[in-house]
Amino acid sequence: MRTPALAAPAAILMCFLAPMPAARAAGHTNNILITGYWPPTNEIVRPFSTSPVQNPGGWQGGNWEGRGYDIYSFFPEFPSGLGKGVGDLEVDYQDTSEDFWRIVAEVKPAAIMTFSRGSAGKGWELEYRSRNLETWIDDYEAPFQPTPSPPDPTLPAGAIRYSSLPMLQIRDAVRAAGIDVNPFIDSSSSSFGGGFVSEFMAYHGTWYKDINDDPSAEYRCYSAGHIHVGSGVSVANGRLAAEVSLRELTRYLDLVIPAPGSWTVLMGGVAFTARRRRA
Question: Which domains does the chain have, with CATH numbers?
C-alpha cells in the first residue's frame, strides 16, 4: 500500500523541526535491522524474520549468539522471478520508502545493515557512500521515479551520505573466514551504488542513522550501511558471510553504545527487550 507523495519524507522532516523535550534522556534499543531485495539477499536474511510465513523454521535473531542484540529482517518475495516482487520492501521506490519508514518506526534500530543483489560474481561489496539523486533508473511500475525526487528534502540533489559500518573489520573478517565470497570496500571516487533501488535503500539506511545519531535522540542509531552481494554467491555462503558481518557489527556496537541499562520497548504488541553481552 502506498501513501500520497511526500508523506514519508515529510514525516521524517518533522524529526528535524520538532524540538526534543528538554528533560528527556537519550536511549536506544539493542535491535539490529537487516533487509534484503532480490535473491540471494532475501534468502540470506530469511532466518532473522519473525514472520512464521516467511520463516517457518523460526526466528533466529533473539539475543543472537548470546551477544545481547536482537536481529530483525525484512525482505520481499519473488514468486514470479526477478522483478518488483511482493511484500515488504518491494523493488519499487514508493513501496520501499513507505515500508522502510514504517519498519524503522517499529524496530527503532540501533544499527542497520541493508543488502541487495549486485553484479555477476561473488562480490561482498561494502558500499562506502550513497547519493540523494534527483534522477534514478526507472523501476517496474508507474511512477517509475521516486516521489519526491530527490527523496531527502533536507539535503541538495546529489548530496552524499556515508556508511558507518565497521567496513574494514567486516572485509577482513569475511576474508579470514575462508568463505567463497570476495569481500571488498567500494570507495572509488567515481563509483556509487548504481542509481537503482539498491542505492535508494542504501541512502535510506544512512539517512535514518544520520538523523538519529545525536546523543539527544530518543532512540539512537549508531551504525548503518549497505552490502551488495554478487549474484554468484550461494545462499549458504551468503548466510555465513552475513553472520561474520553481523558479528563484527555487534563488536563495534559494544564499543560505541553506552553502558547497559534496563528497558523494554513495546511496539505493536511485540516486546523488544534490550540486552547486552556481559562477557
Answer: 7-17+26-273 (3.40.630.20)
